[in-house]
């Protein structure tokens, strides 16, 4: 996913302590998201599951299993890494704080974080990934035409 | 976890062919002519009366009912959809409902029973259903039964409005 390897520019003047705390946490998340270890974990997860997803309104039960696994691996990884950097980090409290400030964040981060709690966002993410994967694997079979070629002189 | 205030999660269950998906789509103003049996689940997010309703509709075939439990978490309102004209399966319907109501993760949910397909000939009326489904035995949940027709849309709004009002007085009174 290229969106996580792009440089993220984030400028905001923090006024009070809650603000400072919030933006410090966001800064840490930005750091985590560009670490190789996270990118690998995330990429492996997407690769493992994207083929299960279909562009259909109805959802398959397996999506729910994948969603739970997603929370148990990807979200948990971020939570644990944040726990190392932020004293007494509380993911739930942070997500609550986040919802009060939907317009303050780089949309890539906000979108990612919303995929942890919002199933529809999670599904959309996989469908986008699927579209990207299928767009990348171009099928050349229709571009080739195999036909018998006979030299007139052979007759 | 609640996503944010004024957000209500509604889980719609019932036997197969009761009309759950039709109710969902009709309520959302979508075409209902091409609905096939649900083998997984559907989700719609609707804005209604200032609330954000997250409605989950899970397939009702017998082989799918063991999956229902994966959708109990955080449910504020349970809609139990009954095919009022399918008299042969009302016993089955009653049994499934009462099993569901013992579920701890649904203990805080308000129950709305939609007596669907009331317009079909031979359909049971509310009093009959109340009796056959043993609704008066339910002491653990706030409940209400209302007839409706998913196809014509009659009473869908009234049912949902009752459900929202009950949930709102329970959850959002501290606002």
Structure, explained:
The complex is a heterodimer of chains A (155) and B (175). Chain A has 155 residues and is mostly helical. Chain A has a single domain, classed as ADP-ribosylation factor-like 2-binding protein, domain (Adp-ribosylation factor-like protein 2-binding protein fold, Up-down Bundle). Chain A is built from 6 helices and no strands. The longest helix of chain A is centred in the middle third of the chain and has 25 residues, at 61-85. Chain B contains 4 helices and 6 strands; from the N terminus they run E-H-E-E-E-H-E-H-E-H. Classes of the chains: A mainly alpha (155), B alpha/beta (175). Chains A and B meet through helix 3 and helix 4 of A and strand 2 of B. Chain A: InterPro entries: ARL2BP, BART_dom, BART_sf.
Distance from first to last alpha carbon of chain B:
17 Å
Record field, number of beta strands of chain B:
6
Residues in helices of chain A, as a percent range: 55-70%
C-alpha-based Rg of chain B, rounded: 15 Å
Instruction: Assign an overall shape of chain A.
Output: elongated
At CATH level 3, the topology of chain A is Adp-ribosylation factor-like protein 2-binding protein fold
Write out the CATH superfamily name of chain A: ADP-ribosylation factor-like 2-binding protein, domain
The level 1 CATH classification of chain A is Mainly Alpha
- The string of secondary-structure elements of chain B, in order, is EHEEEHEHEH
Q: How would you state the average pLDDT of chain A, rounded?
A: 83
Main location (chain A): cytoplasm
Subcellular location (chain A): Cytoplasm, Cytoskeleton, Cilium basal body; Cytoplasm, Cytoskeleton, Microtubule organizing center, Centrosome; Cytoplasm; Nucleus
Domain BART (chain A): 21-134
GO biological process, one term (chain A): maintenance of protein location in nucleus
């Amino acid at each position: 996913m290229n969106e996580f390897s792009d440089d993220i520019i984030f400028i905001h003047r923090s006024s009070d302590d809650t603000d400072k705390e919030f933006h410090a946490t966001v800064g840490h998340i930005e750091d985590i998201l560009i670490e190789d270890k996270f990118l690998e974990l995330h990429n492996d997860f997407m690769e493992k599951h994207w083929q299960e997803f279909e562009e259909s309104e109805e959802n398959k039960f397996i999506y729910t299993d994948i969603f739970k696994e997603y929370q148990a691996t990807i979200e948990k990884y971020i939570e644990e890494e944040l726990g190392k950097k932020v004293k007494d980090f509380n993911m739930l409290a942070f997500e609550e704080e986040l919802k009060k400030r939907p317009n303050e964040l780089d949309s890539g981060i906000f979108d990612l974080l919303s995929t942890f709690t919002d199933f529809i966002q999670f599904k959309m993410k996989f469908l986008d990934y699927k579209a990207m994967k299928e767009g990348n694997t171009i099928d050349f079979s229709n571009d080739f035409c195999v036909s018998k070629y006979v030299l007139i002189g052979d007759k | 976890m609640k996503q944010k205030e004024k957000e209500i999660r509604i889980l719609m269950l019932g036997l197969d062919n009761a009309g759950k998906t039709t109710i969902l789509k009709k309520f959302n103003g979508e075409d209902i002519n091409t609905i096939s049996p649900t083998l997984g689940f559907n989700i719609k997010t609707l804005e209604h009366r200032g609330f954000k309703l997250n409605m989950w509709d899970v397939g009702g075939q017998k082989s799918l009912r063991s999956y229902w439990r994966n959708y109990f978490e955080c449910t504020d309102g349970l809609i139990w959809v009954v095919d009022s004209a399918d008299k042969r399966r009302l016993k089955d319907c009653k049994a499934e409902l009462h099993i569901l109501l013992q579920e701890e993760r649904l203990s805080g949910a308000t129950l709305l029973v939609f007596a669907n397909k009331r317009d079909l000939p031979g359909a049971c009326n509310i009093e009959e259903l109340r009796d056959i489904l043993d609704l008066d035995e339910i002491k653990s949940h706030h409940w209400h039964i209302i007839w409706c027709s998913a196809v014509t849309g009659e009473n869908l709004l009234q049912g949902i409005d009752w459900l929202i009002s009950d949930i709102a007085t329970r959850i959002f009174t501290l606002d």
